């Protein structure tokens, strides 16, 4: 989920904590738990420091990696609750710890529900776990929390209020999961093609992005209600293309490919060499694919420089996709 959702859920969990008599009977502990749940709900994303120290490429590969793993759940909870306890040593530590732990666990669980996923199974597996049925920002989840905050503000019991709010949210999550399962089966029944099917949730529950990867082609489209509309048909790049092979030596491309899926590469001739772009087809903005790794090569295919992340070069990428793919992509 995005940062605003994690912060909002931290405050919501602080309200839910009032169901705990130990918390509700001690204002100092309630304040400490509030700080613990807000920080704990964001702690796994403190791996942003990787971007500051090691750069965007390393961050692209390792964000939601070790920081979202099984051992990290405990370590973040101990760290955050320990810092809060140092600031407020008069409160009971154990309630502070377990409410912080709940916040950290929910952070990772909600991150697993969207398209980006996490490596929550480490150290047992490095596989990216992504269930693909909740968008990065979900107005239903945010809206439910703000309804709860309104009731809290007007004097309703925060524990009971957020018990109801989270019950409603988990029903909503179950409905979204069932919609995801049914939609995936519907698409497979409609297309009757062998391949890898990926659904990417949009903000509204009735609309989903779809990527189908077959042996030779990527199909990218949308499913709205029960209407499947293919937008792009992209022939797979030549894996033996010398320019694409040269780009694979680049560290930013390696970072990008470590946690990307349905990746398409294209190369574009330039006056002094070539530009190679690796694009993740899961993340589409209208007709554009902003999540990519870009490598500049000289005429001898030596790497000049590269970068990776979210690029605001959509129109140029769209134009080059058309010309490079020789009509295979339909826009």
From TrEMBL:
<feature type="transmembrane region" description="Helical">
    <location>
        <begin position="70"/>
        <end position="90"/>
    </location>
</feature>
<keyword id="KW-1133">Transmembrane helix</keyword>
<feature type="transmembrane region" description="Helical">
    <location>
        <begin position="128"/>
        <end position="153"/>
    </location>
</feature>
<protein>
    <recommendedName>
        <fullName>Hydrolase</fullName>
    </recommendedName>
</protein>
<dbReference type="InterPro" id="IPR053170">
    <property type="entry name" value="Transcription_regulator"/>
</dbReference>
<keyword id="KW-0812">Transmembrane</keyword>
<dbReference type="Pfam" id="PF04307">
    <property type="entry name" value="YdjM"/>
</dbReference>
<dbReference type="InterPro" id="IPR007404">
    <property type="entry name" value="YdjM-like"/>
</dbReference>
<feature type="transmembrane region" description="Helical">
    <location>
        <begin position="96"/>
        <end position="116"/>
    </location>
</feature>
<keyword id="KW-0472">Membrane</keyword>
<feature type="transmembrane region" description="Helical">
    <location>
        <begin position="159"/>
        <end position="175"/>
    </location>
</feature>
């Amino acid at each position: 989920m995005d940062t605003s959702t994690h912060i909002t859920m931290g405050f919501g969990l602080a309200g839910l904590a009032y169901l705990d008599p130990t918390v509700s009977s001690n204002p100092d502990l309630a304040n400490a738990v509030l700080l613990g749940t807000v920080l704990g709900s964001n702690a796994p994303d403190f791996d942003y420091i990787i971007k500051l120290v090691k750069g965007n490429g390393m961050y692209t590969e390792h964000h939601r990696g070790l920081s979202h793993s099984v051992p990290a759940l405990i370590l973040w909870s101990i760290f955050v609750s320990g810092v809060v306890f140092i600031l407020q040593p008069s409160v009971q530590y154990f309630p502070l710890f377990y409410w912080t732990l709940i916040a950290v666990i929910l952070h990772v669980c909600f991150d697993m529900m969207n398209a980006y996923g996490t490596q929550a199974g480490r150290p047992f597996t490095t596989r990216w776990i992504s269930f693909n049925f909740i968008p990065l920002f979900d107005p239903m989840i945010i809206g439910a929390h703000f309804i709860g905050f309104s009731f809290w503000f007007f004097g309703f019991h925060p524990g009971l209020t957020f018990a109801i709010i989270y019950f409603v949210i988990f029903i909503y999550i179950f409905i979204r999961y069932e919609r995801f399962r049914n939609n995936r089966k519907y698409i497979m029944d409609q297309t009757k093609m062998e391949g890898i099917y990926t659904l990417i949730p949009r903000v509204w529950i009735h609309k989903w992005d779809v990527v189908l990867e077959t042996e030779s082609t990527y199909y990218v489209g949308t499913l709205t209600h029960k209407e499947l509309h293919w937008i792009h048909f992209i022939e797979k790049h030549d894996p033996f293309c010398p320019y694409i092979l040269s780009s694979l030596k680049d560290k930013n491309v390696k970072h990008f490919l470590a946690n990307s899926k349905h990746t398409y590469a294209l190369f574009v001739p330039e006056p002094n060499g070539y530009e190679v772009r690796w694009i993740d087809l899961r993340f589409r903005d209208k007709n554009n694919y902003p999540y990519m790794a870009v490598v500049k090569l000289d005429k001898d295919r030596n790497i000049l420089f590269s970068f990776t992340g979210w690029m605001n070069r959509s129109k140029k990428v769209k134009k080059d996709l058309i010309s490079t793919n020789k009509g295979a992509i339909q826009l």
